[in-house]
């Protein structure tokens, strides 16, 4: 009996790995795991199935990286799971999109914030500037001085956890911006005056001072297409942007999609981290 129990214990991990996966979070965890996954293609569809090779994504990720999956959204037809990769010095995030085909969940797309390499290069240049050049830079860029630009770039190319930590530390100031914008009615419901309201809000000295201290490029309502959300745009290139979104009505929060808003990650109290592509 002891010998049988020992064999059962040794074989249990392999038995569990062979069990059918039923939920998106389970599939995501298996897809990014370090071990080989022979059944992988049975859980893939669309572009991911066309791109899939012999190895799972997890086998292609450096083995020293820790992997953490978080279910962001799931209904009867679609689901989104975020994946964080981290080690002692770095963090990175990407997002998995699932659709239910007949009765089986399948992974259809993988996305991450694109074009961050330019931001990394800019950050390296700015952080290696001697003090004399920093002074000259500030003279040439009075609206976006060196300290602001460095802080902004660190958020733009930073991990989700870095941005959320920044928000949590400065949540009171983010709330002040919302209160100022709402009290001064910079964003009326009329779409034809939205651009003028946005310009006025960002030109407001009290708002502008807070945004600069928060390393936020501007506030807007046009980045995610949500006409009732207040977006704190950090940065990005073309349509690959990252920011923080305020919308206390959960039902009005825009949906995620691999082709537009690639992530809406809840922070709490009506605040979200968002990224677009």
UniProtKB/TrEMBL annotation:
Protein name per the record: Uncharacterized protein
Upper lineage: Bacteria, Pseudomonadati, Bacteroidota, Cytophagia, Cytophagales
């Amino acid at each position: 009996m002891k010998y049988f129990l020992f064999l059962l214990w040794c074989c249990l991990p392999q038995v569990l790995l062979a069990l059918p996966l039923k939920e998106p979070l389970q599939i995501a965890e298996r897809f990014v795991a370090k071990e080989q996954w022979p059944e992988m293609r049975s859980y893939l569809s669309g572009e991911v199935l066309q791109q899939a090779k012999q190895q799972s994504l997890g086998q292609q990720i450096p083995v020293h990286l820790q992997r953490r999956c978080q279910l962001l959204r799931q209904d009867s037809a679609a689901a989104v799971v975020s994946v964080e990769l981290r080690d002692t010095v770095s963090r990175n995030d990407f997002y998995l999109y699932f659709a239910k085909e007949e009765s089986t969940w399948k992974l259809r797309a993988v996305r991450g914030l694109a074009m961050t390499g330019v931001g990394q290069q800019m950050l390296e240049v700015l952080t290696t500037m001697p003090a004399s050049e920093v002074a000259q830079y500030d003279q040439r860029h009075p609206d976006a001085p060196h300290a602001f630009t460095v802080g902004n770039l660190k958020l733009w190319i930073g991990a989700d956890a870095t941005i959320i930590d920044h928000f949590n530390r400065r949540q009171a100031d983010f709330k002040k911006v919302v209160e100022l914008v709402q009290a001064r009615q910079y964003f009326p419901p009329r779409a034809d005056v939205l651009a003028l309201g946005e310009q006025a809000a960002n030109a407001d000295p009290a708002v502008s001072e807070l945004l600069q201290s928060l390393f936020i490029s501007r506030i807007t309502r046009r980045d995610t297409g949500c006409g009732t959300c207040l977006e704190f745009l950090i940065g990005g290139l073309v349509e690959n942007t990252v920011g923080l979104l305020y919308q206390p009505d959960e039902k009005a929060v825009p949906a995620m999609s691999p082709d537009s808003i690639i992530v809406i990650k809840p922070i709490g109290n009506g605040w979200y981290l968002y990224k677009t592509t």
